[in-house]
Amino acid sequence: MGGPGVGPLPSSGSPSELDRLRAAVALYFPIYETQIAPASLVLSVHVDPATLEEKFDRLCKDLWRLFYVPILHYQTGEYTIEVIRRPVPRYKGVWINIILLVATIASVDFAGALIWLSYEGQSTITSDAFLWGGLTFALPLMLILGLHELAHYWMSRRYQLEASLPFFIPVPPPLLLGTFGAFISIRQPFTDRKALFDIGAAGPIAGFIVAIPVTILGLYLSAHSVAPSLAACGPTVLGTSYSNLVLNSPPLWYVLSLFFPISGNIHPLEFAGWVGILVTSLNLLPAGQLDGGHVWRALLGDRARFMSIAAVFFLFAIGLFFYFGWLIIGFLVLLMGVRHPPPLNDITPIGLGRTLAGVGVAAILVSGFVLVPISAPGGAIGFSNATIQYPAHPPPGTLVAANLSVIIQNSDEIAHGFFFSTTVQNVSVRAQNGSWQYLSGAALTAYAENSTWTFYFPNGTSVVLHGASVMTSSSAYVTIASYASAPLAVMYTNPSAARSILIQLAAMEVCPPVGAGSASTNFALSPR
User: Fold this and answer.
1) Based on the domain organization, do 59 and 186 belong to the same domain?
2) For 267-308, how does the pLDDT look when each residue is reduced to its tens digit (9 = 90+)?
3) Could you tell me the CATH number of the domain that includes residue 67?
4) pTM for the full model?
5) Chain-centroid distance, C-alpha 96
6) Domain final residue, candidates 85, 117, 142
7) Total domains present in the chain
8) pLDDT tens, position by position, 1-14
9) How far is the CA of 320 from the CAs of 323, 324, 326, in angstroms?
């Protein structure tokens, strides 16, 4: 949400115009001195602090109709009112609002379809995906964002300030959320700090109130959902599977998790609530023209500029070290302006009630903020405790079978599915002349193709593969929970005897980016 400043300052005007302006001010404040500046009229006035706020509000409305703006100053014990010409806004109608709204609904529904497919463990977009993605993600998210902006609009109209309808910002697929939110344009300067606070806080409070029940219902549905197989990667966007995306929890989630266990399979409704809470918190950062910039400018006056500068430095710091997206937000804040313009009446305090409400607004900011909103762990996997066991009575000096075992460790914050590949790297066999030689080329390939691998998985299933191959059957996937480990046993056999064999066992993450999480270990088999 943004508010205008006053436009370029004009010449002082004709004598009759100056008299009209003096008369408009004198209707509310006795004038005892007049100064005509090159671009404004400065009037020293007598003020009754008890009626200052009410009378100045009326003066603002009167002068606005005359295409002027009054600015109240207090310095060295004197009150002055500076009158300047206001810019004439250019109205473009509501068509742009309607077009952006329709485009945003379409882009958010597309995002919802992808999120629904990920939730269901599917990858093909269907009409059902658009339907359920729209109902469970697009509709609640647009409701949160829309009521946020309409609350700004309603509060602006309550203070009789001209404001536009919301401008929604669509984000075309394949980006994740489908929108960058929305904003309204306030076409008048804020009259005083109370208006600045109320208009700035109205949107986040309304959005937060709607996001809470959406989130609670989404958490309930997530907790009672059945997680799809990790072999079902869902749609892939920009080379990364949606199933690999992690929504990191803000502090509010840890409070809600006391009542609803947090599930690894996130329902789209929970996703919508998470986005709504995050957007609300982001808007409350005490920077520039953000909602938080309005609120903290109202609370702290001109001292809020220090918080705004600190907030921008904070965004750049966490953008460099934690999450790149914060750099984009930081640059946007710089473009909008770090220093918030003062309201026309920057003297009247906002009162104890709004000051206490500011504490609640700060609590909303803290409860919904997270340093790394979305991450895509790459399947951090490792092998340990690799052991080899030979048959009890192998042929003398040769090898035809061995039992291999290894511990697979997943050091990521989410569960992953992995598939395996086997490679026979070198083999030593007895030649016809009785000497030992290493196979190469076609001979090594032929030997490897005669190999049989029997994988015994932790869930009690087993899969038999022949040759040096990669598992592609869904039954061959190994699912390992976050920060967990699992044993894997492999029996290797080959009818052709060999003296020594070097085998490589490799594991790779199932879902894209394939191979982002991978590990391998070698088994050197030699006779006893």
Assistant:
1) no
2) 899 999 999 999 999 999 998 889 999 999 999 988 999 999
3) 3.30.1360
4) 0.79
5) 26
6) 85
7) 3
8) 655 544 444 444 55
9) 7, 6, 8
